[in-house]
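Annual report, structural modelling task.

Input specification for the H79 complex:
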Amino acid sequence: MQNSNPVIRDRNQRTEWFLEARFGMFIHWGLYAIPARGEWVRSVEKISNEAYQKYFEEFDPVAYDPGAWAKAAKKAGMKYAVLTAKHHDGFCLFDSKLTEYKSTNTKCGRDLVREFLEAFRAEGLKVGLYYSLLDWHHEDYPAFGDPFHPMRENEEYKDRKRDFSRYVDYLHGQVKELLTEYGHIDIMWYDFSYDNMTGETWRAADLVNMARQLQPHILIDNRLDGSQSIKTGNPFTYSGDFASPEQLIPANGVTDGSGNPVPWEACITLNNNWGYHSSDRNYKSPKLIIRKLVECVSKNGNMLLNVGPDAKGQIPEESLSILEQVGSWLRQNGSSIYGCGKAGLPKPDWGRFTRNIKTGKIYAHVFEQSIGAVCVENLAGKVGSIRLLKDGSEIPVTRPWNTHDYPEDLFFNFGIPDGATYPLPDDIDTVAELE
Ligand code: H79
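The model returned the following structure:
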């Protein structure tokens, strides 16, 4: 059914592939990979432009091989990727005509964005670009208080005259470059607006209209606007195509005031940093990542999982190993993720349900070892067949002898022919397909 609000109607069309894809790679990479203390290092340590300049002089990612990144993403089961074309430090990974502060002017001399786009497209992945609205390097930013600007306590810097509108022109000019010189871009991922920054701060209506004119299919996140306008049920030009909860999964997904689903994507780090951090070993387990991906999908959301390549351009070994394990689970169980969403069933104690949006098939993700059969509330007699997703093997629908007091509920055991009390296989996350 078509929505009567044209903003929502167009959004529903544009986001179709995105909702199907469910899993993407976020890549945070830039000069901050050299100090290796996270992408906020300039702000946290109050590093001046001059002191930070040494990383620009030094930058030389000899091992940058975006084809290898693309293969790792594909093997992990990811369907799209978003690279930081410019982060808050203002360093551009592309050959912008509007600045000298760019990768082509460093030792490496390469247009890192162009190479990323070509390599990921070649693997059949959709491509997105992250662009920071904040810019700690540009001489006309900020025209007003940025509470975490690296130079916020430097008197001379604070008093310098700035023309903020020139910065906004620069921002618009760079986005235009990215959307005209680099072929088909699937996502523009803006980051971010403080509460005192509205869409008007960035002249966001013009920015969005330009993007839609140049690339009508493009998806835009919801960070051009400091408010939650995407959730109002009456979104406007720059409310964005999807909500972008950061480092959290909302309790009930994201819906508008009338309970209608709003596309959303949780962005999540693998350890505790977006940019490369040499001593952060706080990696999440593959099992946790799989469960969190299932959780996102069960709430109609996507997961954008981050990697932070190092100064040479290598994705950390720990990250690659997690991605491989998630990928091997997805190769067997991907049909419970891609094209799936909320199942419309109450959340079971033992795990989560997802459901394929087109076929209506239900997937039971069993996270917890069961005592005897897995119990599915109220589905007795409503399921004709149950298959273990990873190998297609039959799970009998027959009622175990000890369940007669619970006639409304469906019970099943994994691979146990007589349905007696046996433990579940101790696999990472067993998924059953119910039809
Ligand atoms: O690009 C990634 C982050 O750098 C950026 N968004 C993701 C996708 C971002 N993270 N946090 N924020 C933006 C908001 C600011 C958080 C802060 Fe802080 C809290 C700034 C100062 C205190 C975290 C802790 C960053 C520095 C110290």
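Residues 28, 39-40, 43-44, 148, 191-192, 246, 267, 274 surround H79 (CB under 6 Å).
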